[in-house]
């Protein structure tokens, strides 16, 4: 796979801060992928405006317009196929997407905690950080993993931890975690673009750089 030829599709439901990070890194050469398109599950997501402002193809596919998760997922897969996406990055996509066999280990997600802790259905956004604080954790962080058809269950690609300070609240913890997300997610995408990820069961091996 040619590094510069990886076509990345982004799935989102909200503001698109992660998308904006990808856009800026792609322009500076820090992301070894071309953003081929953006799908939002909400028509009012600000992430769509970010895509439009940067001339990135985008569309809304709302699960409310479909009779089942399967039919919704088929519509998403059809659009990804249209864009010939080599990798799909979930970036705050709050609708369940059934990943087809041809996209196995080609869909990544980032979770704002150290999986398997504080993961699963219902654990997203500030809910995760509130749970971390309520539990009294001394560390938190984020996890990039290959998504499968269970919430926050796929093989882990990269993780990074941060300290939870006694003065942290939900907002400050969320801000600290997002700062490391901005580094970790692109790093995982670049490893994929370089052909350096090998999945064996639940383990993801990072291969040496042949260059």
- Give the ordered list of helices and strands: EHEHEHEEHEEHEE
Order of strands, widest sheet: 3-2-1-4-5-6-7
Whole-number tally of structural domains: 2
According to CATH, what is the class of the largest domain?
Alpha Beta
Strand % is: 15-25%
**Proportion in helices:** 25-40%
Tell me the name of the CATH homologous superfamily of the largest domain: Formyl transferase, N-terminal domain
Low-confidence stretches: none
Query: Got a strand count?
Result: 9
Largest sheet: 7 strands, mixed
Q: Average pLDDT across residues?
A: 95
CATH architecture of the largest domain: 3-Layer(aba) Sandwich
Output the number of helix runs.
5
Can you put this structure into words, describing what you see?
The longest helix is centred in the C-terminal third of the chain and has 24 residues, at 170-193. This protein is globular. Helix 4 crosses helix 5 (170-193). It is 32% helix and 23% strand. The chain is of the alpha/beta class and 211 residues long. The mean pLDDT is 95. It is built from five helices and nine strands.
Which properties best describe this structure?
211 residues; alpha/beta; Rossmann fold; 2 domains; 7-stranded mixed beta sheet; two-stranded antiparallel ribbon; 5 helices; 9 strands; 23% strand; globular
List the topology elements:
Blueprint: E1 7-12, H1 17-28, E2 34-40, H2 46-53, E3 58-60, H3 69-82, E4 87-90, E5 107-111, H4 126-135, E6 139-146, E7 156-163, H5 170-193, E8 197-200, E9 203-206
Parallel strand pairs: 1-2, 1-4, 2-3, 4-5
Antiparallel strand pairs: 5-6, 6-7, 8-9
Helix pairs in contact: 4-5
């Amino acid at each position: 796979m040619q590094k510069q030829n990886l076509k990345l599709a982004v799935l989102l439901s909200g503001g698109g801060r992660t998308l904006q990070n990808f856009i800026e890194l792609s322009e500076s050469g820090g992301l070894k992928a071309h953003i081929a398109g953006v799908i939002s599950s909400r028509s009012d997501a600000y992430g769509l405006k970010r895509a439009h402002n940067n001339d990135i193809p985008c569309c809304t596919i709302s699960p409310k317009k479909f009779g089942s998760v399967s039919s919704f997922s088929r519509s998403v897969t059809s659009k990804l196929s249209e864009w010939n996406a080599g990798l799909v990055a979930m970036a705050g996509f709050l609708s369940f997407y059934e990943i087809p066999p041809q996209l196995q280990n080609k869909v990544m997600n980032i979770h704002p905690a150290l999986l398997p802790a504080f993961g699963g259905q219902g654990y997203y956004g500030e809910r995760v950080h509130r749970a971390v604080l309520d539990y009294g954790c001394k560390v938190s962080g984020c996890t990039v993993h290959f998504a499968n058809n269970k919430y926050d269950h796929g093989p882990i690609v990269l993780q990074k931890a941060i300290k939870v300070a006694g003065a942290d609240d939900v907002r400050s913890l969320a801000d600290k975690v997002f700062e490391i997300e901005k580094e970790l997610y692109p790093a995982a995408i670049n490893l994929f673009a370089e052909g350096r990820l090998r999945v064996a069961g639940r383990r993801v091996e990072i291969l040496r750089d042949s260059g």
